[in-house]
Amino acid sequence: MTGAASRPLGAVTRGTTGQNRLRRSDRWLVHSPRVRTAVQSAADPLIVDLGYGALPVTTLELAMRMRRVRADVRVVGLEIDPGRVRAGLAAVADGLAPGVDFALGGFELAGHRPVLVRAFNVLRQYPPEAVPDAWAAMRRGLAPGGLIVDGTCDELGRRCAWVLLDATSAVTLTLACDPFAIERPSDLAERLPKVLIHHNVPGQPIHTLLTAADRAWASSAAHGVFGPRVRWRAMLDMLAAQGFPVFPPRRTLRDGVLTVPWPVVAPLE
């Protein structure tokens, strides 16, 4: 066990996990220009998977996928529960986790200096007022140019949302889904990160975005004959035409992905 802190910062969460649960966020990380640049230019390509849960499967998947960005990526899975750390170390001992380690740690990152932190389905289980301190603690541990992904998804990973953070501010919000598994974009509201989920009310920017997305989705219904992925692209085009600064999707898109700059959805005081 490497880099363990004497007292991890945080609380034990439920720890539910599952194979391929975080595949949509992993695909986004692999293709994100900002993330790719950070990892490829890092002196030490260390990634921390914070709060990976009862089994280390999503940590192993993250390592496998991020090696497409840089072959020498190292991944450390951090958990507050010693039993979960032992499960991860057992995978290392069995030779199932090349380039991956596991340690006891929380938001303080156990003394590591990663270029990327993934914290999925962690802060969702905390009160909203805990978010700023958790973000600040993780930021203090980042390597220069480092990034954080604070996200949430459902049990099967079909509905997801995450915030990308750098050392000083939130950068973007991304909503992602299996477009076959929703009726409208606002179905993703239930998976908004903790920093936003209580602000999805009229008058707040996130509510404005989701309402506009629902309208654009409805107006794009004719594209549904070609499948929900085509309809999702048409929705993005309509939002862009309405002035929403939507990031253009990749040419080959398996997921429904909507990414906007953080100021578009930042909560109003």
Fold and architecture overview:
Helices cover 31% and strands 18% of the residues. The radius of gyration is 18 Å and the shape is globular. The protein has helices spanning 23-31, 33-41, 57-66, 82-93, 131-140, 194-197, 205-219, 228-241, and strands at 46-50, 74-79, 100-104, 116-120, 147-153, 159-165, 170-177, 256-261. The protein folds into two domains: 23-177, Rossmann fold (3-Layer(aba) Sandwich), CATH 3.40.50.150; 179-246, no CATH class. It has 269 residues and is of the alpha/beta class. Strand 1 (46-50), helix 3 (57-66) and strand 2 (74-79) form a beta-alpha-beta unit. Helix 1 runs parallel beside helix 3 and helix 7 (205-219) crosses helix 8 (228-241). Mean pLDDT is 93; it is low at 1-5. It has an eight-stranded mixed β-sheet. It contains eight helices and eight strands, in the order H-H-E-H-E-H-E-E-H-E-E-E-H-H-H-E. InterPro entries: SAM-dependent_MTases_sf. This is Methylase. It comes from Mycolicibacterium chubuense (Mycobacterium chubuense).
In total, the number of domains comes to 2
Rg is 18 Å
The appropriate CATH architecture of the largest domain is 3-Layer(aba) Sandwich
Shape estimate: globular
Note the main attributes of this structure.
single chain; 269 residues; alpha/beta; Rossmann fold; 8-stranded mixed beta sheet; 8 strands; disordered N terminus
What's the layout of helices and strands?
Blueprint: H1 23-31, H2 33-41, E1 46-50, H3 57-66, E2 74-79, H4 82-93, E3 100-104, E4 116-120, H5 131-140, E5 147-153, E6 159-165, E7 170-177, H6 194-197, H7 205-219, H8 228-241, E8 256-261
Parallel strand pairs: 1-2, 1-4, 2-3, 4-5
Antiparallel strand pairs: 5-6, 6-7, 7-8
InterPro entries: SAM-dependent_MTases_sf (IPR029063)
Protein name: Methylase
